[in-house]
Write a structure and sequence with these properties.
Blueprint: E1 2-10, H1 14-21, E2 34-39, E3 44-51, E4 54-66, E5 70-76, E6 82-92, E7 95-104, H2 108-116, H3 119-137
Antiparallel strand pairs: 1-7, 2-3, 3-4, 4-5, 5-6, 6-7
Protein name: SRPBCC family protein
InterPro entries: COQ10_START, ORF3, START-like_dom_sf
Pfam families: Polyketide_cyc
Length: about 150
């Protein structure tokens, strides 16, 4: 199992940043390699990815969700094995620190080599930068929100 930890500061209030992160079907707009996410229930999402030519489909279950604080998940079934948590930290009224912790299990030789070369870490860093650009380009306004607790 490999681990990635990344963070970024976003020029938007914590509520807007958290709300945007709960809009899983928007992830393909800023996550490279994510082709589609379907929100099937309040706690179940279905992912279709294509990263470095490798296609995967899997379900992910939201295991914990606390508004303005954290979203945690784990994959279930399918080919991808991962778990993670994103936490949201208020810096001030207009700035939020987003922290990502991701545990993943590379599948096969190509993914293991890519992981050793830092591909997953670079992917996470890029995705967080694109998330920042996405919400900041909208003036800190989210596309939607889900404020429930899990």
């Amino acid at each position: 199992m490999s681990q990635v930890e990344e963070s970024i500061e976003v020029k938007a209030p914590v509520r807007a940043v958290y709300n945007q992160w709960t809009q899983f079907e928007d992830f393909p707009r800023f996550m490279d390699g994510v082709e589609r996410i379907e929100q099937r229930t309040e706690t179940l999402t279905h992912w279709k990815t294509k990263i470095a030519g490798v296609e995967r489909e899997f379900d992910a279950e939201i295991t914990e969700q606390i508004p303005d604080e954290r979203v945690a998940w784990t994959s279930i079934g399918g080919e991808a094995r991962q778990a993670g948590v994103v936490t949201f930290h208020r810096i001030d009224d207009t700035t939020t620190k987003v922290m990502l912790q991701l545990d993943h299990d590379p599948e096969g030789l190509a993914e293991a080599v890519g992981d050793k070369l830092g591909f997953v870490k670079r992917q996470a860093t890029g995705d967080l930068k694109r998330f920042k650009e996405f919400i900041e380009s909208r003036g800190g306004t989210e596309t939607g929100a889900w404020r429930g607790n899990v």
